[in-house]
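A favour, since you know our structure tokens better than I do. What I am after is a single protein written out in full by you. Could you add the entry underneath, on a fresh line?


***
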Amino acid sequence: MKKCSIAACGAILSLCSLLSAQQPQSAKPCPPEGFSGGFSHGCPQKQFANPSDVSAMMAALPDKPMATPQSLRHVLVLCKAAGWVHTSIPLASKMVEYLGDKTGAWMTTITYDPAAINAENLKQYDAIFLDSTTGEFLDDPNDKTATQARRQALLDFVKGGKGLAGIHAATDSYHTSSRPPSPGAAPVAPTGTWPEFNEMIGGFFKFHWTYPTLIPVKIDDPDSPLTSMFPARGYDIVDETYTFAQDSFSRKRVHVLTSINYKKMSAEDKAKEPAATRRTDGDYALSYIQHVGNGRVFYEAHGHDEKVYFSRPFVAHMLAGIQYALGDLKADDSPSEK
């Protein structure tokens, strides 16, 4: 075998190094199927909830609906997460299904396929439930026509008189990142990338306190049937708590049901929110409702951790919110600020 010269060997080594650098770096291993209490990125979506979590959730279900359904209702649960994937998604979908089954308030279809959001298919449904959908969850990156059709179908569905309900990461969709542009730099304010959806869902994600953080919750409308399950004085919750970009959320558009009791938060916890993008009004809504066209929208910011679904008041709140979106539970949905 011939030996290569020093120059030739060096060239070969340089070429090998270049090719190696161009190879994709090995990603962190995906968590096991039973992983819970968090989220993953770039991993297949877990589609089955842990049986023990389902049992604990079922024990928290109300026995009857908040209002008598005006007709046989059908709810479509969309579980597609195009960005961060929360492990609580399968449990939240089963919560919607079993809430409807036990109370008789609706029938449920669960899908992980965004292609289900099309004008023809949606004719059979009265409400859509966005189950911690993230990223551009409706979009087909290879088909702009399909993407536009899905987006329009969702907007037309709600504005035409149907309902939309969302939980937790449903607002972590269709916006730019707030990550610093470079190490050590300040975070940048995110911007919405689909204004019609951003406005319809009520706002878009900016920051969340690290899980677990104890969050004091204020009841903004104690007279609403959607908050009747909570003590009027408020309550505390341990979960991953979302906040919205300053200009994406406004009480002039939505009727706030619950919010962070910011005055009760410790100075230490307040300081964890990046100063560069901190809300200047101290207004951190958690759940709200609003009219969009002829339709109705309900959103709840908590729901990250599976344990939240074991709470009777929380599950009852979700029942009320979905029934509002369906049009069966009447409530004051006028903007909180005129």
User: Anything to note?
Assistant: The first strand starts at residue 39 and ends at 41. The CA atoms of residues 215 and 266 lie 10 Å apart. Confidence is low (pLDDT under 50) at residues 1-26. The chain is about 25% helix and 20% strand.
